[in-house]
Amino acid sequence: MDRLAIDGGPALDGAVRVSGAKNATLPILAASLLSQSPLTVHNVPQLRDVNTTIALLRRMGVGVEFHPDGRVEVDPTTLENYFAPYELVKTMRASVLVLGPLLGRYGRADVSLPGGCAIGARPVDLHVAGLQALGARVKIADGYISATAKRLHGAHLVLDKVTVTGTENLMMAAVLAEGETVIDNAAQEPEVVDLAAFLNSMGARVTGAGTGQIVIQGVEALAGDDYAVQPDRIEAGTFLVAGAITRGRVRVEHVVPEHLEAVLQKLREAGAGIDTGTDWVALDMQGRRPDAVDVSTAPYPGFPTDMQAQFMALNCIADGVGTVTENVFENRFMHVPELQRMGADIRLEGHTAVVRGTEQLRAAPVMATDLRASAGLVLAGLVAAGETVVDRIYHLDRGYQRIEEKLARLGARIRRLT
Ligand code: UD1
Fold first, then answer.
1. 8 Å CB contact between 210 and 193
2. How far apart are CA 58 and CA 305, in angstroms?
3. Closest ligand 1 atom to Cα of 234
4. 47 and 401 in contact (C-beta within 8 Å)?
5. Among the atoms of ligand 1, which is closest to the Cα of residue 165?
6. Fewer beta carbons under 10 A from the terminal one: N or C of the chain?
7. Has 117 been annotated as catalytic?
8. Is the peptide bond before 301 cis (omega within 30 degrees of 0)?
9. Which DSSP helix (H) or strand (E) runs through 278?
């Protein structure tokens, strides 16, 4: 199992090109099932979760070519089954994203339930209830969701809770349904907007994505062409925090600065100088220790839960006391005991972590438990005295394309142990 060895200390300095967004790529590849013709998706990151999605599509008989330049050619016309097996879904919850498109296009889907997950229960009840409201018959047995429909019909859906993949699944199911679907309390994440733009590029009629109400007029057929995935705002945010935590200077390129607003605001509060251009953000700490900040996660445009662990790491070495409150997931503090092993002063009070900054973290062997927790540990390793070894980095490879190469180019002393 691969590990990362990080020799903490150097202030990062340099520029990094951000990859395509994982959380936009996954629904877009799933949505390619809706197309009547082959299509090409560009700017696709080389990630484990992307490979899992491609494996899933291939299992269904879909032709997929992933080129080293980030192009994925998909030929959905060769699809021969509607089955997403447990052994793939268990490695990536987002596999459930094939449910909506399969049902919308073929009237049939058998998708394994995702099961337990390191960051809490994460049910899919809202996905299922929405599909039922669109006319699907859903049976849940033996760990599988089996859904059928002749043709889905439009409906007015009000989501009980803001759910990103739930909104995406229902949007994908509704684009070929008969009539109008309204999704209220929809997720407003930029990845939802990217998916809507992709669907519209295939001939769908989706409006309102990026607001709390999405309206979909069903169409008869969709045909894909070329589409480029938007930049990954979480990868960008992680590199900016890497700059801040090491008192350095980092410029992230090929980003959409507006997608990072909540994160940039917190970095400014931490004392960072922030400059933005049309597709870049530059951070400069001018050698200063960051100030502690309070963050509280919320659906977009609030502070992203996927940046929580990274800001926890920042607070560990900041000047003062910062609180980190997790409101989206019930159990997303697994990085806390690992950070404590590095000398962090963190006290948990329910879903809030109270972090008192220390001058210096100490290197320790630590273990990654989920994707973003791992990112927090790597950031801590960048400033800890001595060599930190982060184990189980397959979690990190799910969502960051060659993070050690990008960090090394910024001046970090980091290497992969295989
Ligand atoms: C997506 C992102 C993930 C991010 C999360 C929140 C992808 C592939 N993953 O995950 O990186 O951390 O959004 O921004 O895009 N819930 C229910 N019932 C449901 C669905 C969700 O109760 O049917 C709950 C979840 O347990 C959680 C909350 O809603 O507490 C939000 O989860 P959701 O937005 O659905 O997360 P994902 O879409 O799985």
1. yes
2. 31
3. 11
4. yes
5. 38
6. C
7. yes
8. yes
9. none
Q: Please say if the pLDDT value at position 154 is more than 60.
A: yes
Average pLDDT over residues 177-182: 98
Q: How far apart are CA 205 and CA 217, in angstroms?
A: 5
pLDDT of 236 above 80: yes
Any ligand 1 atom below 6 A from CB of 227: no
pLDDT in tens, 353-409: 999 999 999 999 999 888 999 999 999 999 999 999 999 998 999 999 999 999 999
The residue contributing the CA closest to ligand 1 atom 31 is: 163
Q: How far is the CA of 94 from the centre of ligand 1 (A)?
A: 9
Which pLDDT value is given to residue 114?
Answer: 81
Q: Side chain identity at 374, as an amino acid letter? A: S
Q: What is the mean pLDDT of residues 217-245?
A: 97
pLDDT averaged over every residue in the chain: 95
Is the pTM for the entire model greater than 0.70? Answer: yes
> CB under 8 Å to 350, separation ≥6 — which residues?
none
Distance CA 216, CA 176 (A): 9
Q: Is 94 in the pocket of ligand 1 (CB under 6 A)?
A: yes
Q: Which of 45, 8, 46 is closest to 411 using CA atoms?
A: 8
For 54-109, how does the pLDDT look when each residue is reduced to its tens digit (9 = 90+)? 999 999 999 999 999 999 999 999 999 999 999 999 888 899 999 999 999 999 99
Ligand 1 proximity of 305 Cβ (cutoff 6 Å): yes
Return the ligand 1 atom nearest residue 328 CA.
30
Confirm or reject: Cβ of 160 under 6 Å from ligand 1: no
> In ligand 1, which atom is closest to the CA atom of 121?
26
* Predicted local distance difference test score (pLDDT) of residue 123: 85
Contacts of residue 104, defined as CB under 8 A and 6 or more positions apart, other chains included, come to: 34, 152, 172, 173, 174, 175, 176, 177
Q: Ligand 1: which of 161, 188, 306, 331 to mutate, most ligand atoms within 8 Å of CB?
A: 161
DSSP letter (8 states) at residue 12: P
Confidence at 115, pLDDT banded by 50, 70, 90: low
C-beta of residue 270 within 8 angstroms of C-beta of residue 34: no
235 within ligand 1 shell (Cβ under 6 A): no
Q: At what angle do helices 99-106 and 164-174 cross, to 10 degrees?
A: 10
**Amino acid at position 177, single letter:** A
Task: Please state, as a whole number, how many other Cβ atoms lie within 10 Å of the Cβ of residue 253.
Answer: 15
